[in-house]
Design goal:
Structural class: mainly alpha
Strand content: under 5%
Oligomer: single chain
Distance between the termini: 52 Å
Number of helices: 2
Helix content: 55-70%
Order of helices and strands: HH
Radius of gyration: 26 Å
Length: 76
């Protein structure tokens, strides 16, 4: 089910902005340098690789169990 949208007023602006909420409710956008972008991408990639390696370890353990079960079935 899609998330409900905030109602808009006839002027086209979201109702939350017209009700006098402070403009500093969100953090101001800060432009990143190319170095910061690359370093952020590097850390994200390292995290993804670590998660994938952990998943691969779990799958290898499961495969080992299936291979042991297959050996048991073949001997009986």
């Amino acid at each position: 089910m899609p998330a409900p949208k905030a109602p808009e007023s006839p002027s086209g602006k979201p109702a939350a902005l017209q009700q006098g909420k402070p403009a500093d409710a969100r953090k101001p956008w800060k432009k990143k340098t190319p170095v910061e972008v690359v370093l952020e991408q590097e850390s994200k990639l390292r995290k993804e690789i670590a998660e994938a390696e952990e998943d691969l370890k779990e799958k290898r353990v499961q495969l080992k169990k299936f291979e042991e079960a297959r050996r048991i079935f073949e001997t009986s």
